[in-house]
Structures are given as C-alpha cells and as structure tokens.
Amino acid sequence: MTDGSNVYARVTALHRIARTLEHMTLSAEAEYVLRTIEERGIRFVRLWFTDVLGFLKAFTITSQELEGALTEGMGFDGSSIDGFARIQESDMVALPDPSTFQVIPWRTEQPVARMFCDILEPDGTPFAGDPRGALKRQLARAADKGFTFYVGPELEFFYFKSLDDPTFLDQGGYFDETPLDVATDYRKRTVQYLESMGIPVEYVHHEVAPSQHEIDLRYTDALTMADQVMTYRLTVKEVAHEFGIYATFMPKPVAGVNGSGMHTHQSLFEGDRNAFFDATDEYHLSKTAKAYIAGLLRHAPEITLLTNQWVNSYKRLVPGFEAPVYVCWARRNRSALVRVPMYKPGKEGATRIEYRSPDPACNPYLAFSAMLAAGLAGLEGEYDLAPEASNNIYEMTEHEREVAGIRSLPEDLVEAIHLAEGSDVLREALGDHVLEFLLRNKREEWDAYKSHVTPYEIERYLPIL
C-alpha cells in the first residue's frame, strides 16, 4: 500500500470514528427519528417554528441533512422573521425537537415529516425572541416550584365558501347534526389527520353561530399543547383547502353572531397529584388554585394583549355574545372571565379552571406563558381570591359592578397596549425582546386601523354629512 493510500485509510477511519461518536450523542428520540425516516423512505423534513405574532414558519431540509440538524441545528436568516433579528444580527439556528417528529398526513407526492424547532443564537444559547423558548422559561419557573402546567384549549373557527366569498355554509346552531351541519366530513377528516399525528381529540361539534365549529384537544402539558395548537390551525386550513372551502380563526369575522374563542382549561400538578384539588374546601379548590385564580384575575387586563392580540379581537369581547368582558370568577356563571367547572366525585384529577377570554388567533406559546405568569404571581404574592360572582354580570349596573370590585377587560387594542406597557408580569413572562417587539408591532397595527375609513363610516355618514 502506498503512503497516499495509508493516509487515505487513516483519514477515512478517523472520519468513521468521528461519525460514530457523533451518532452516539444522539438521544433515543433522535435515533428513532432517523430510523423512521429511513424505514419509511421520507425524503424531506419540514422544520417548523413560530414568529412573535404566532405565524407558523418553516423551511425544508433533505433527509441526508437531518442527522446534522439534530446535533448542530440548521442555520437560517432571521432578519425577515417578525420579532426575530435585525439585519446586522440575522444569523439564527433552528434546532429540531425530535419529540415533535410526525409524518404530515395531507396529500403530498411523497411522505414528508415535520418537527418543531427551538431557535438558538449562533453560539448555541437560546434566542430571546423565540416564543417557544419564552414558554419553556415559564414552565421551568413553575417546575422550580414543583408544578407541571397542563392546558386544554377549546378552539372555535368558521368555514366559509371561499376567502373571496365569506358566506356561511350552513345555518346550523350549537350541537346541530345533519342535515343542518354540512361540515361533518370536513371535521371528520381533520380529526383523522390530527390523530394520525399523535394529537388526541376529545370533542367535535357545531358551535353556536352558523358555519362555526369546534374541535377540542385532550389536555396535556403546555409546551406540547402549544405545538399542537399550531398543528391544529394548519390542519383545519389544509382540510378546508382540500374540500375547496375556506377556514378562518379570525375572532369576529361576521357582525351580529358569536365570535370564535379559545377557552383555555388549565391546572397545576405536583407529580401525579392535582394541586388545584382540596376535598375539604366547599368549592373543592385548594389554596394553590385560589391564589392562581386571584393572580389571573388581578393581571387579566394587562395580559389581554397576549390572549387577544388583534384589533378584531375586541369586536368579540363585547356584551351579548357569550364572550367575557368583566373580571370575576364563578362556577356556573358563564358570563365570568374565569369559570370553575363543577367537581365530580372520583374525578379529582379533572379539577381545573377555565379562562374564557382568549381567542384562537393568539400566539399560543405567548398566551400560555402570560396566563401561567399571572397565576404564578398570585401564588408568589399569596393573593386573596374575591368572592364568587353569582349574578349575571351583564345585567348589573356599572355602579353595582364597581361596588362589587368587578373590573372590565380592555375595550380595544390601544387600551390593551397601554396596560401591557407597564406590566411587570408580562415582562417577566416574555422577556424584553419579545415584549418590546410586540408593543411596537401592535402600536403600528392600531395606527393603521384608526386612520382607515371603514364601510360603516361611509354608509352612516356620507349621506348626511
């Protein structure tokens, strides 16, 4: 063998050893992903992440690049992603989370998989503008106190004939079945796709408004659920596209009917024990649960920018359409912001609270972060819980609500912005990077909205002024 051949052999052996060592650093989940990719002949993998406004972003890599992506991440230009980086600091790294690996079920020419990513700086440190990272920081804060945060959102949406023709497909109502509910097949296929991606579904039904629907996901930890919400929204839209219709999560697309909400059930667990349950309490609520509710109520107005982040969100938060407006809690009273579902004997693990103001167009990572941060503030500050609101708050006078200490949520986006600006709870939940970008973006949205002349103004004022 020549000297050149010897050198080649040694270099090849060293490369083989290096690849083996690198391969050994992969987790069992990563190994499973690589094995599945090979066994199923998957050629492309989509790497998903979310910008600050909650829009799903993605780029695609080939299967040959996946092993390197799992160990080192994939670099990309973050300067064009809302809330990420400026031109002079644009380099970002997307590190796939192998636990989120799933094959995409809707029609493609060949199998395609996806994974959610954590966004890192080039030096490997977590990027401060990553919404998924913001939620992970809050979950770590809860974990330091011994808690795991579980959520179960109820996402509502509308089907329309098309984007250009937003007319109802039916005149059905709550729980209506065929023939009024023509969307049964759309919902069925959506559920099939979700379950094929490992996302369990609890309830599927027609909602109150015409052509409005709801598919409820089974509760799970908040990070998994935020990933599932992003997948859910895309799946609903993909199925609508397959059937030649249009689906929207816009909070209030049609005046005069109920808007779409995302009532969010939530609880804290200590290991396998529900920290919200107390068998000796008249409401079966522990001190932890009461302080958590008190935190949500005290900080609700300032976190509303996260749970209801668009100008249109506040067209839904008005009296008369089942959306909460007033800051209070109750058990049976669905006009309250926080509802405590009634306790069922033997179902201690199901003890939870339902936060009713969020809408399905929010960024779930940031909304869950904000709600958890408000609840933890109640625990840390040992907030006292106000008495239950047993009356219909909508029928109370403004003076009666004032005497009862019942405040209101922001009436519009600009009020929500002002409340969020001075919120220490939000700054803790999101970090300076995310909060400052969000405030800047929302001010721009409000400025554009307030200068826009609407059809309402033309119709109302042009004939008389």
Description:
The protein is α+β, with helices and mostly antiparallel strands and 465 residues long. The protein folds into 2 domains: 27-127, Ubiquitin-like (UB roll) (Roll); 135-459, 2-Layer Sandwich (Creatine Kinase, Chain A, domain 2). Helix content is 38%, strand content 19%. It has helices at 3-24, 28-39, 66-72, 131-144, 184-196, 222-242, 287-307, 313-316, 364-380, 398-403, 413-421, 424-430, 432-450, 455-461, and strands spanning 44-50, 56-62, 74-77, 91-96, 102-103, 112-120, 148-160, 201-206, 212-217, 220-221, 246-248, 262-270, 273-274, 326-330, 336-339, 353-355, 407-408. Strands 7, 8, 9, 10, 11, 12, 13, 14, 15, 16 and 17 form an 11-stranded mixed sheet that branches. Strands 1, 2, 3, 4, 5 and 6 form a 6-stranded mixed sheet that branches. A hairpin with an 8-residue loop joins strand 5 and strand 6. Helix 5 (184-196) crosses helix 6, helix 9 packs across helix 12 (424-430) and helix 11 (413-421) runs antiparallel to helix 13 (432-450). Mean pLDDT is 87; it is low at 1-24.
CATH superfamily of the largest domain: Glutamine synthetase/guanido kinase, catalytic domain
**Overall pLDDT metric:** 87
Put simply, the count of helices is: 14
Beta percentage is 15-25%
Describe what is shown at a glance.
The chain is α+β, with helices and mostly antiparallel strands and 465 residues long. It folds into two domains: 101 residues, Glutamine synthetase, N-terminal domain (Ubiquitin-like (UB roll), Roll), CATH 3.10.20; 325 residues, Glutamine synthetase/guanido kinase, catalytic domain (Creatine Kinase, Chain A, domain 2, 2-Layer Sandwich), CATH 3.30.590. Helix content is 38%, strand content 19%.
